[in-house]
């Protein structure tokens, strides 16, 4: 691949949106890496102080900040390219899983590896949108919901199935700027 030297107009906008997500998630989470338009973050077991409604409130606060940043960037959208014109239709989707991983240095970069990391990646392609439509959501696996003691009232259960993996039970929470979770 060759560096064209030309930065498409939408890239600074996407960078701003990703920066905003990271600002709300790090800390309490640790940024692992960016994967296209996705942020991959994790927390070592025992180091995430968020439990129950606090976890859901953190994700919802990140969503609210994302929407505010989208509103702020509207005035910066000056072209009619596909990326700029679809910016207002972007929404957030969170996948939260709890499991084991191994951190290894590969080519000088720390990578998280293991079956549970693979499951988290596979869960990015899920059926939550069939339950909540085009709205923002947080999908918590049964393992994550149990570990973080997430309240399941209002959650929509879903079973995700992937080749070579046992069915994964999960819960989908709609994110809403009007939503407040209280303990």
Please describe the biggest sheet, giving its number of strands, its sense, and whether it closes into a barrel.
Answer: 4 strands, mixed
Strand order of the largest sheet: 3-6-8-7
Round the mean pLDDT to the nearest integer and report it.
89
CATH architecture, by name, is 2-Layer Sandwich
Count of strand segments: 8
CATH class membership: Alpha Beta
- Assembly state (oligomeric): single chain
**Radius of gyration of CA atoms, rounded to a whole number:** 17 Å
What string, H for helix and E for strand, traces the elements in order? HEEHHEEEHHEHEE
Please tell me what the overall shape is.
Answer: globular
| Helical run tally | 6
Number of domains: 1
CATH topology: Alpha-Beta Plaits
Unreliable stretches covering 5 or more consecutive residues: none
Distance between the termini: 51 Å
Which bin fits the share of residues in helices? Answer: 25-40%
* Range of strand content: 15-25%
